[in-house]
Design brief:
The chain is of the alpha/beta class and 292 residues long. It has 2 domains: 141 residues, Rossmann fold, CATH 3.40.50.620; 146 residues, HUPs (Rossmann fold, 3-Layer(aba) Sandwich). It contains 11 helices and 10 strands. The protein has a 10-stranded mixed beta sheet with strand order 3-2-1-4-5-10-9-6-7-8, sandwiched between helices. Strand 6, helix 6 and strand 7 form a beta-alpha-beta unit. The longest helix has 28 residues.
């Protein structure tokens, strides 16, 4: 698998690298560590410009040191590694490099889940998750106990679409461990969602049908881990339902399929994947087939 790991030298990026480093993989990883330094225009007196230039150089050194620490995480692993330093806008640079390298997965850190942090997140992680030509894993700092010292909990959203099937297929390229716990979940829109439309349906019949379809997916999900629970939850908003469910279950990773990066798919993404990226308290994996 070709993976692009983006870093700005922050502890959040190193946390993302740590999660990636501890996931066993059956095939060699072609890992590119991408360090992006934002371009800054210098204006003012000569003293001010010199001071800003010194600070930018110090920032580059800090990022370079962070890259060396990340490289150390993969020592001895079956990884072909390269480190790339680029100046530019973080979001668009990450997307451009993912395209150039034909990456299958982009991994980057997120700062957290407060309102201010989500505003900051929108300029990088949200942009990358929406525009990248491949899957994106946005890693958030752990809530409470570090998963390094316990078994991971995955929440996989399965709406029976080809995108959801691909998400499970891509997850199978990593070894999640026999004790990993997986919640396989689908969302049944509540009658309130259609309150102003002339629509009636039997929610119990739909729930039974959804559970049967989840059960048909059970064999492929159990190839990731034998510990799988199936759930059909009811909510008026799919994204909100998934985020709330993952929080209640203490999930470390919420996994969703996404059909692509065209205008329509990005519009549809706003109600589910983008909502999850912005509001989930756990890490989020948006599975997307490579653009061709």
């Amino acid at each position: 698998m070709r993976v692009l790991l983006a870093t700005d030298g922050s502890k959040y990026a190193e946390h993302a690298a740590s999660l990636l480093a501890r996931l066993p993989h059956s095939q060699p990883l072609e890992l590119a560590i991408l360090a992006v330094t934002p371009l800054v225009g210098f204006h003012g007196s000569l003293d001010v410009v010199e001071w800003m230039e010194r600070n930018q150089e110090a920032e580059k050194q800090r990022v370079a040191e962070a890259c060396r620490r990340i490289e150390g995480l993969f020592e001895g692993a079956d990884v072909r590694l390269q480190t790339i330093f680029v100046n530019g806008h973080p979001g668009s640079t990450i997307v451009a490099q993912a395209e150039a390298l034909k990456s299958e997965l982009v991994v980057l850190g997120a700062v957290g889940s407060s309102m201010l942090e989500r505003m900051m997140l929108g300029s990088t992680s949200d942009f990358v998750a929406t525009h990248a030509p491949c899957s994106v894993l946005v890693v958030r700092p752990d809530q409470g106990e570090s998963p390094t010292h316990r078994n991971l909990k995955l929440c996989i959203a399965d709406d029976q679409s080809p995108a959801a099937e691909f998400a499970i297929e891509q997850l199978s390229e990593f070894g999640w461990g026999a004790q990993t716990h997986i919640d396989l979940v689908n969302v049944l829109l509540s009658p309130l969602s259609f309150s102003e439309l002339p629509v009636t349906y039997d929610s119990e019949e739909l729930r039974t049908d959804m559970l049967e379809k989840l059960n048909a997916r059970l064999d492929s999900v159990q190839s990731l881990s034998p510990h799988v629970d199936m759930h059909v939850i009811e909510d008026s908003h799919i994204g909100e339902g998934l985020v709330d469910f993952a929080q209640r279950r203490g999930s470390d990773l919420l996994v969703l399929g996404n059909t692509g990066r065209g205008l329509l798919s990005r519009f549809l993404m706003g109600s589910t994947s983008r909502f999850a990226i912005r509001h989930a308290r756990c890490s989020v994996w948006i599975a997307r087939r490579q653009a061709t």
